[in-house]
Amino acid sequence: MKNFKIGDKITRVPLIQGGMGVGISLGRLAGSVAKAGGVGIISTAQIGYREEDFDRNPAAANERAIAGEMKKAREISGDGIIGYNIMVALKEYASHVKAAVKAGADIIISGAGLPTELPELVKGSLTKIAPIVSTDKSAKVILKYWDRKYKRTADLVVIEGPQAGGHLGFHKEELEKYTEESYSEEIKKIITTVKSYAEKYGTEIPVIVAGGIYNREDVRKVDNLGADGIQVATRFITTEECDADIRYKEAHLKAKESDIAIVKSPVGMPGRAIMNKFMTRVMNGEQISHSPCHGCLVKCSPKEIPYCITDGLINAVKGNVDEGLLFCGAKAWKAERLQTVQEVINDLF
Q1: Which GO terms describe its molecular function (predicted)?
Q2: The domain that contains 87 carries what CATH number?
Q3: Residue 128, φ and ψ in degrees, nearest 5
């Protein structure tokens, strides 16, 4: 595993900090990771939740916060590498991408659907683009589409495995099917697919592996599979620099392995979260009343959902953990104490 390039910048550690919404990875965390030599990633999912007009005009609040959090990250990181994670599933996906480009994003990482239109949205800018894929099939689909429609390829590819946190790019049956060994084979296939496009375009496309990477042994395993780097999210939740409330961090520190479960998001996608009072009510079939629609996800119908994902995630990041949705990776229970970003990076490498 070696340091990789994003545009004319080179990492000092082969690491991307995964994007975590709502409000978990904002300017402070992303800037701190970039300052330490990795790639800091700001999540745009309901990023403007602290803006005064968020309830009245979430689209404008989010766009304003996209610019504001980049400014904060740059002040911390200097010339470090800063990007955004922007979910394809967002209603305002295109405007978020354009706002990220305008803010000077070094890279946009995009999943929760296939980012078919991403090359067009960043056209004429210096912003690099990276799809998140979970299977070789999805890697082939998006790279073939970009190749045919835009005559270009990815600048970087993130492979997100079944042990990742938050929304997952697998059906529930697939999550049950994959073992560490069988998913290792899937990673190798994706790397081969990506290399074929790198050769076609006479370039290098770093392949970054994510999901369940918690310690040096995990890093070694994906290094042996041929990964160019790692993406880590959950480890950074229990850092001093993470943008979430201390009570959110403490909920992760208190979590036991048995507390972590696959849950269903309101739009039907499986996700991984810490079981708490809120999620127990949801899993028991309770309909939880929610605020007026904040227009976050394309496929959400407010009249039909069991709970509002925006409400759940905002409650969580603000520290109201009993009423919040606590997304996490499979190994969140391993966290024992708060660390600094630099300590986490030292542990991993």
Answers
A1: nitronate monooxygenase activity
A2: 3.20.20.70
A3: -85, 160
